[in-house]
Amino acid sequence: MSTTDAVRPHDRPRTAPEPALRPAAEPGSGAEISIWSRLFFDGKALVLRSRGFFGERRERRYPLSGPQGISRAVLVFPDAETAARERGAGEVWLLDASGRPVARLLPYQWIPAGAPWLNFEEAVRRSGIAALFKACGIPVERTTQDRADAPRVPWWQELTLLLSPGPALPLWYQALRMALGGVWFLAFTVLFFSEASLPWLMLLAAVTAFLAPVARLAVRRVTALRNRSAARLDPAPLVEISPCPGPPEEDGTVATRRFVSRAVLRVFPGELSVVDPYGADVRRALSGPAGAVAVVRLTGPDGEPVGVELRYASGARAPLGAWADWFAGPGGEAAWDRFRRAVPLPCEERKVSAVALTPSLTRGPGAAFPGPRAKEARQDALFTRSIGTLNSTMFMMFSSSFSFWWAPVVRIESPAAARTSALLGLAGLLLQFAPWCWHHLRSRSHFERPVSGEDRSLRPRSRPRPARSCTSPTTRKARTR
Fold first, then answer.
1. What is the pTM of this model?
2. Which of 13, 12, 33, 9 lies closest to 23, judged by CA?
3. Cα–Cα distance between 16 and 271 in angstroms, integer?
4. Which of 214, 246, 248, 458 has the smallest C-beta neighbourhood within 10 Å, fewest atoms?
5. What does DSSP say about strands 317-322 and 305-312: parallel, antiparallel, or unpaired?
6. Where is the composition biased (Basic and acidic residues) (predicted)?
């Protein structure tokens, strides 16, 4: 295996050859992963593009020949109990000629959307792993976890062999947060259970508590810069489609300003990008053995369009969005016409019965749609949490409050340490509450507000050109007249 770190973007092709595995989409820093991370075959070796420890873009090559080259793949199926208990259970091992593990894959990490609800065999197929192995000429074997022929290595080797698109947050940030939390907890334990005031230890706890929100603000800024840098790696899109929502629906779903201003459909050469209102970028292949074979417009029992989806050769379908969210408003037909002309796939019509017409049909995993409730939308729009999830934020708030609350205890012995600890605790609380308050204020006052009639009227109206197929009922009536 050869590794090339710190890859210069202008030295690498912008698109990976098909079939290529695409990572599961995540908001926040996951936008960079969706653009950069790929696992593909370049004709000589498997190439993994991923994010490194410090967030750098890197490439690793895994040869398919030689004593350490990949010679076969083993699908390790989970037992029934594990599959029922753990979503996405099961893994794929790549072995060399002597049977030693070279790498391992977790299929759910390489499915753009909907991975947790798939069984292992379906995940291998939907991710494109089966098509990639076929293109590489890698023979595939099957086994289960409880069989003797299942590959087994120590857990630390499993981590090093994992072919992962990279962490949503840089590992340096998570390691720093864990180190700061450990130092603070040690200082807190000694201070709380000791009779001595220990000003220097109190100052150490205050500094570590203050650095945690500073690190989070720093990683948010770095994420924004790297997402902009990664966006420049993409080729120019053939077309960009913004939502053209229609009137509010009977089920209560209302298009919000967040959805209209943040969601977008982008058609690239051989690839479709669906960006939801929270920044998650779902990439779907439009070519190759694992790509979609047709774009389908769904029509309801009354003949009116209700949604758009992609159809694959296996029969699987991937929703892109509801028609009411994207093409039902002013300029919607023109947007549909541009989208149809840009997508290099045939267009099909599929009628849906009233029984099958459910919200999950058009607003399922991977589709872009407005959130059902403003409260849930504000929660989903928060920046990606660290390894401690919600407890991490609560821990930071408590640690900063402790610095402010415990400062009077050391004031007599060291007034300077007490003042410094109190100021650091107050600053830490401000650094946590200010972004939180700004997020909720902006969401409540602007982003989660429904799109008004005035907002719809401001959208450009353009005369739609006749599409090659899948024309709307309105266009067909106009032509008949």
1. 0.84
2. 33
3. 10
4. 458
5. antiparallel
6. 449-458
pLDDT at residue 264 is higher than 90: yes
- Summarize pLDDT for 348-400 with one digit per residue, the tens: 999 999 888 888 899 988 899 998 788 888 888 888 766 555 557 777 888 88
What residue type is assigned to position 324 of the chain? Answer: A
Q: How far is CA 101 from CA 60, 190, 223, 237, 444, in A?
A: 16, 46, 34, 40, 52
- Residue 33: is it exposed, middle or buried by C-beta count within 10 angstroms (0-12/13-18/19+)? buried
Backbone φ and ψ of 414, nearest 5°: -150, 90
Q: Rounded mean pLDDT of 163-181?
A: 88
Q: pLDDT of 33-63, one tens digit each?
A: 999 999 999 988 999 999 888 888 899 999 9
Residue 435 in this model has a pLDDT that exceeds 80: yes
Q: Is the backbone peptide bond immediately before 19 cis, with ω within 30 degrees of 0?
A: yes
